[in-house]
Amino acid sequence: MSIPSAPHHPLTDTEVRRIRNDFPILDTQVNSRPLIYLDTGATSQNPVTVLEAEQEFYEQRNAAVHRGAHSLAVDATDAFEAARDTIAAFVGAAVDEIVWTSNATEAINLVAYSFSNATAGRGGSAAERFAIGPGDEIVVTEMEHHANLIPWQELAARTGATLRYIPVDDDGALRLDDAATIINQATAIVAFTHASNVLGTINPVAELVGLARKHGALTVLDACQSVPHLPVDVHALDIDFMAFSGHKMLGPTGIGVLYGRAELLNAMPPFLTGGSMITTVTMERAEYLPAPARFEAGTQRISQAIALAAAANYLTETGMQRIQQWEETLGQQLVDGLTQLPGIRVLGPAAGVPRIGLAAFDVDGVHAHDVGQFLDHQGIAVRVGHHCAQPLHRRLGLTATTRASTYLYNTSDEVDAFLTAVAGVRPFFGVK
């Protein structure tokens, strides 16, 4: 398939202002102020092309896929599978290595529950490689989102395996020296985030994958904060599984993606069972289709997949390298500005160290929820709370932070307006 080409010159504020015209919601007024949307880390906004792609499906192609023989069903199936082609190309995967899920959380649970089923003897001899039990270890990191922690806690509880984690230091960086001993001959799975949704840290995938490979462990990458913002090639990263969500990369909610090596997916027992994922069914047993169909039981997320493909095309046409560079610029602007304000503690890498375009921070003497409410009154949307990373916050001595996260549609002027607003938080609440 042909992949849209992207310009090579860096993004500028002038071009970003043109990009913003593709996002109707960015013209919204919030509390009688122009919306400054700095919460893409939670969910991104949608360009018109994405909205139109989903509407066009319902207006012209709406039918069940992989079931009907009539023309409308064939058109729907073709569009659905073309979307898979697009997403595979977007992350450098083969088309049969892309599984549709409802979100990244389901994608990670799919892997964990499939391994649990293999441990219970499902999947035959091909699945024995995924069985784990007492004596085996699952390794995560202390900076994980709950979606890449709790499924492994549950898998360990069901199988008797031990869950271990790579700690972070006082600045939130992974203690890689510890990782070299924590990942050992007992390690069966290493699951870690590519980019932290709290710290903005971009983790050393090659180093962690190398440690896992050394001991024959499988790797699972949480790419929710990297696939939307960085060029990602799954084969170049040499990972076994990767999960990401559509709603963080200009796509709709209700659609996520699991990448898995084809040979692994085809050996794994299914997670959800039912129609559309079988070859033969009797009253006693069933046989399952090859991947990815064996993991896509029931009616699929058809319009969402098509809209996600439109989102991927939009990002590709803009240029992922350009988006990464622009967000790095905005991320450094955030860190530089916040660290100059009194009473502000910024989490994650220091100014000058590469990060994705977000910054989480604590305001001394003011709860994060109050900070968020103060900013919202000025039309600035940010995220407050523990960002589904309670253990990380606890390690850093915090219960909650405020997070500003940028994307290709944010300007440097918006970041300046945000910094000006944050400078007014402590005076407003009478904190000296």
From TrEMBL:
PROSITE patterns: AA_TRANSFER_CLASS_5. Transmembrane segments: none annotated. Its EC number is 2.8.1.7. InterPro entries: Aminotrans_V_dom (IPR000192), Aminotrans_V_PyrdxlP_BS (IPR020578), Cys_dSase_SufS (IPR010970), PyrdxlP-dep_Trfase (IPR015424), PyrdxlP-dep_Trfase_major (IPR015421), PyrdxlP-dep_Trfase_small (IPR015422). Keywords: Pyridoxal phosphate, Transferase. The keyword Translocase does not apply. One of its GO terms (molecular function) is cysteine desulfurase activity. It is an enzyme of class 2 (transferase). It catalyses: (sulfur carrier)-H + L-cysteine = (sulfur carrier)-SH + L-alanine. It holds the Pfam family Aminotran_5. Catalyzes the removal of elemental sulfur and selenium atoms from L-cysteine, L-cystine, L-selenocysteine, and L-selenocystine to produce L-alanine. Belongs to the class-V pyridoxal-phosphate-dependent aminotransferase family. Csd subfamily. This is Cysteine desulfurase. It comes from Arthrobacter flavus. The lineage of its organism: Bacteria, Bacillati, Actinomycetota, Actinomycetes, Micrococcales.
